Amino acid sequence: MKPLFLRLTPYLMLLMASCGSLPERLSSGPHPVADRIVFSAIQYVDVPYEFGGMSREGVDCSGLVYLAHQSAGLQVPRTSLNQYRKAKRVRKNQMRAGDLLFFKLNTKRVSHVGIYLGDGRFIHAPRTGKKVSYSHLDNRFWRTRWVSVGRYY
């Protein structure tokens, strides 16, 4: 497992990049609860994917979201489909770190969720045989399976 400072580097870079003018930070900058969601999710980088998993031994995509929100004092449903159904919708051009990204993989319904980090990057638990990792929305795979953005904070 990577040292904590290496796992946090992408998020710290995002925070440093957001240190622009004061009005910009107030309108679109980090949100304290969102910061806790992102910080918690980053702690799971390199944890193996496990269907139904909800621990540092193994976690699935919705379990990662559930645990990250729980650490920020928020309750969310346990499955990606229910997380999608209950989340407040956010326009793609208004998404910010801590928001949830929903995807349809091999089904007609939402079946995957990740946590947005900013600058097109997100963190998620991909699938069996993989580990919690970072991905980018510009990747053709994710771009073509995109559904929406949701928020619980």
Span between termini: 30 Å
Portion in beta strands: 15-25%
Examine the secondary-structure arrangement and name the CATH architecture: Alpha-Beta Complex
Helix count, per DSSP?
6
Q: Find the CATH topology.
A: endopeptidase fold (from Nostoc punctiforme)
Helix content: 25-40%
What is the molecular shape?
globular
The number of distinct β-strands equals 8
CATH class: Alpha Beta
As for the number of domains, it is 1
Written as H for each helix and E for each strand, in order along the chain, the element string is HHHEEHHEEEEEHE
Spatial sequence of strands, sheet with the most strands: 3-8-4-5-6-7
Helix/strand-derived category reads alpha+beta
Described by its quaternary structure, the protein is: single chain
Q: pLDDT average, as an integer?
A: 86
Radius of gyration: 14 Å
What's the name of the CATH homologous superfamily?
endopeptidase domain like (from Nostoc punctiforme)
* Poorly predicted parts: 1-7, 14-28
Largest sheet: 6 strands, antiparallel
Summed up:
The protein has 153 residues and is an alpha+beta fold. It has six helices and eight strands, in the order αααββααβββββαβ.
Please tell me about this protein's structure:
- The protein is of the alpha+beta class and 153 residues long.
- The chain has one domain (4-151): endopeptidase domain like (from Nostoc punctiforme) (endopeptidase fold (from Nostoc punctiforme), Alpha-Beta Complex).
- Helices cover 35% and strands 21% of the residues.
- It contains 6 helices and 8 strands; from the N terminus they run αααββααβββββαβ.
- The protein has a 6-stranded antiparallel beta sheet, covered by helices on one side. Strands 1-2 form a two-stranded antiparallel sheet.
- A hairpin with an 8-residue loop joins β6 (121-124) and β7.
- α3 (32-42) packs across α4 (61-71).
- The radius of gyration is 14 Å and the shape is globular.
